[in-house]
Amino acid sequence: MTESNLMLEHPLAKYLRQERMPHIWCEGCGNGVLLCSFFEALDELKLDLDKLVVVSGIGCIGRAAGYVNVDSFHTTHGRAIAFATGVKLANPDLKVVVISGDGDLFAIGGNHFIHAARRNVDIKVICANNFNYGMTGGQYGPTTPLDSWTTTTPYGNIEHPFNLVHLAAASGAVYVARWTTLQVRRLRNSIEKALQKEGLSFIEVISPCPEIYDRYNKLGTAIDVMKRFKLVSEVRHGYDPAKAEITKDQIIVGEFIDIEKPSYGRLFREMTAKVQKKLKGGKAKCERK
Amino acid sequence: MEKKNRAVLTGTHFMSGDLACAEGAIAAGCRFFGGYPITPATEIAERMARRMPEIGGVYIQMEDEIGSIAAIIGASYAGKKAMTATSGPGFSLMQENIGLAVMTEAPLVIVDIMRGGPSTGQPTMPGQQDMMQAKWGSHGDYEIIALAPSSVQEMFDLTIECFNLAETYRVPVMLLADEIIGHMWERVKIPPPEEIVLVSRKKPKVPPNEYHPFKPDGNLVPPMACFGEGYRFHATGLTHDEKGAPKTVSIEEQTKLVKRLCDKIRKNAGKIIKVEEVMLEDAEVAVIAYGITSRAALSAVRKARKEGIKAGLLRLITIWPFPEELVAGIAKKVNVIIVPEMNYGQLVREVERVAKTTPVFLLSKLGEEPHRPSEIIEAMRRALK
After folding, report:
1. Cβ of B78 under 8 Å from any chain A Cβ?
2. Is A76 on the interface with B (CB under 8 A)?
3. Which of B195, B211, B231 is the last residue of a domain?
4. Which of B123, B196, B206, B264 can pair with B39 through a Cys bridge, CB separation 3.0 to 4.6 Å?
5. What is the DSSP letter of B195?
6. ipTM of the complex
7. Per the confidence metrics, is the pTM higher than 0.80?
8. Partner A contacted by B329 (CB < 8 A)
9. Residue A135 C-alpha, separation from nearest chain B C-alpha, in angstroms
C-alpha cells in the first residue's frame, strides 16, 4: 500500500480544485484561513454549489477564485464587484461572493465598492486585508497604517489609511463585520450570516503577511502576528464603525452593522412586475406619444 | 407570445439611430444593458432603461464605463446577451476590460457613437476618430469585430448582426457609429420576429467533468457553459490552458492561446466581412468610405459618373477584421483610391498598407460637418490629374 492510499481525504476537499494545488500563497499567510472559513461556512449551510459563483480581482487572494471548486471568475484588477454585479442581476438564482484584497477592492476598485454598497447589490464581499500589495512585493496601499515601511514608503507611510468597516457602513452595506484570521469560528459564522442575508454584506478579514509586510515592519513570524491579534483584538458587536479605526494597540472586531434593506435586484424585479402589469392592462404604451 | 411581440416592434417606424440600435439589440435577444450616460450615446441607455423592464430584461446604470463593461461581461457569463453603449471618453475607459472580454471570450456588444476627440473633444459633434482604438485600444495581441452602420436602418440591422457575431465567435463586437448616424431620424422597418435570424452561443455537449471551458471545436471557438449550469468552471484574464488554469510562465500556452484568439477571427474573416460595392467594375478611381461619410461618397460617385469620371465606391460595413484582400483587389484595378474620413487619417493607413503601389489620398475632415459630395468629387479630379 502506498502512502497516498493511507491518507484520508480532508472533509473540505470537495470545495477545493485539488488539481490546482499547490497554491501560490506563502507559509503563514492568512488567505488559507480565510478560504477554509469560507469552505466551513459552505459546508455548514449545505449550499447548492452549482448555484454559487466566486469572483476575485488581482492580488494574492485574487487567486482564490481559481482554487474554489465552483463557477468562478478572476477579473481584471479592481473590477470583481462590477463583474459580480452583472452576474447577480443577470441570474438572481446565483449566490455571488467576491473574495479579494484591500488594494484591489479599495484602491483601484474603490468606486465599484461604494456604489455596489449604495445600490445594495445582493453580493457578499470578503476582503483579505494584509495592509499592503503583497503580490507585487510589498508596496503601500489604501489600508497601510501610518509610518509603516513598504517598498514605496521607504521613509515611512505618510498616507492615512481607510477604516474599511466605516467606509462600508457609510456606503450602505447591510452587514458589516471585521475579524482577524485568529477568530476563525466567528469569521465562519459571519460568512454564514452574510451568505443568508439579502443585500451587500462586507466582511473584513485582518490577515498576516509574514513574508512581506510583517517582515518589513519587524512584526515577527506568522505565529507572532497571530499572538498579537489575540492581544489587541477586542470583540465589540454593534460598535460604531466610525470609531473602529485599527491602531497598533487595538483592533476592534465584531459585527458592526446588521440591518435589512431591499436589494437593487429585488427593487428592479418589483418595478418590472409593476411595468408589466400596467402593460397588460393597456395602461402603458411601448411607444412614447 | 405577447412577450415576444413586445420585444420586437414589428412595423415601420420613424426613429433615431440610437433608438434603432436599442431596438435592434432587443430584437437580437439582448436582455442586459449596463451603461453610463454620455453624449451622443445617452439615448440608447434611456431607451433601454424604459424598455428592459417591459420585456423582462435588466438595466443597470453603473458608476462609470469601467463598471459598465465589467457588468456586461458578468452578465454574459451568467447567460444573458448583454450590451453597453458609449462614446470616445467612455470607450477609452472600457479598453482594459475589452481585453478581459477578449481573453475570457465573453460574447458581448459595445456600441460606440463616435464624437470628436481627443479627450472630451466635441461631445455633440460627429467624428470617426475611434477606428484604430477599436482594434488596438487594449494591450496585447487580439482581434475583435467592428461594424460601421451608415443609416438608421443599419443601426437596427447591424446591431442584430453584432450580437450574432459575438455569439458565434465569443468575442466583443463593436458597433462604430458616428454622432450623425446616432442622432439622425429616418424610416426603419422592423421585420416580424420570425424573419429575424438569431444566433446563440454553442453550448457544451459533454458532461461537466469532461468540460474544458477553453477547448475550441472545429472553428477555433470553444462551446460556452454559463454560471449556474453545473459545469463549475473557472475563467481568468491570466493566460490559461484549455481547462482555464492560469499558465503565467509558459511560452507554449501563451503562444497557443494568443494565436487562437486572433486566428478565430482572422481565419473566419471571409465569413465575417461585409461590404457594399458600387460601380467598381470599370472604375479608375475608387472611394473607400464607411458610416456617414459613405453617404456623401455614394452621392459623389454617382455625380462623378455623370461628369464622365469613372468612379466607384467600396463601402465598408465590416471595419475589423479589415477587408484587406478585397481592398488589395480593388487597388490592383484602379488608378487611385480616395479615403474620406472624419479624422486625421486612420483607416487610410490600412488602405495604404494593402494598396501597395496604388496612390491613396486621404480626404480628412474634423469637426462639425461631414464631407460634401462636391469635396469628394474635387478630390477625385485632383487625384486623377
Report:
1. yes
2. yes
3. B195
4. B123
5. G
6. 0.97
7. yes
8. no
9. 14
